Amino acid sequence: MLRQVKRGLVISSALLTFGLFVPSIDFVRDVQAEEPQKTQGESNENPLIYQVNEDSYDLFGDVLPAKIEQYIHRNASSADVINDYIMKQAAEQSMLKFGTVISEKINMPFEEQILPRLDSVLRETTETLSDKDWEQIKMSTSPSAGLGEKIFHLYNEETREDIFRFHVRRDQPPKQGYVFNFHYHTYLDKHEKHHTIGNIHWGKDMPPRWNSTDRVYS
Known about the structure:
The protein has 218 residues and is an alpha+beta fold. The chain has 4 helices and 10 strands; from the N terminus they run αββαβββααβββββ.
C-alpha cells in the first residue's frame, strides 16, 4: 500500500506544500466546477451535491451537513489527487512518529492493514467537502512525540476546525502485552466517537516512546 500511495503524482511543487497545499489560481479553477444554470421552476429547498467527472455528473449519496442556497459541485478527479497526496503524507508522517525501532517492527502490518483502511475512511470523510472547503484544507506536519496520540490532523485553515484526526494509542490488555490502536475522529460526529481502524501487536516489552524530535504545529 505504501508503494501505491507513493506512485508518481505529477503535480507542480508550487501547488503542494508540506502543510498540504496552497492552491494557485489555475489550480482552483480546475478544482472548482461551474454552477449549473437553474431551469424555470427549480427549487433550492433540497440542494444536492454532484460529483464532477470529465463527461458526466454522478449524484453523490450524501449532502453537506450545512445549509446551502445553491447546487454545489466538486471536481472528483482533483479531490482524488489531493487525497492521494494526503495518504502519501500520512504514510511518511507515521514513519516519522514511529521512529526507527518501532517502524522497523510494525512497518509491514501498518502498510498492509492500517493504510488501506485509513484511505477508505479518509475518502468517506472528505467526499462531504465542497470545492470551497478544499480551498481551506490544511494538514498538520507535527506528529506528537513522547506518549502523544496524534499522527496528523486535517483542518480548515480559516476556521481552525479539525476535519479529520488520525491517532495511535498504546494499549496494554491483560496478559497480552502492548498493542498499538490506530483510530480516527471526524467532524461528522463532532469528534465524539473513537473509530478504530485496526490494532498492531507489539509484544510484552514496553515499546520506546514516539520519536522525540522537537516539532512545531503547523
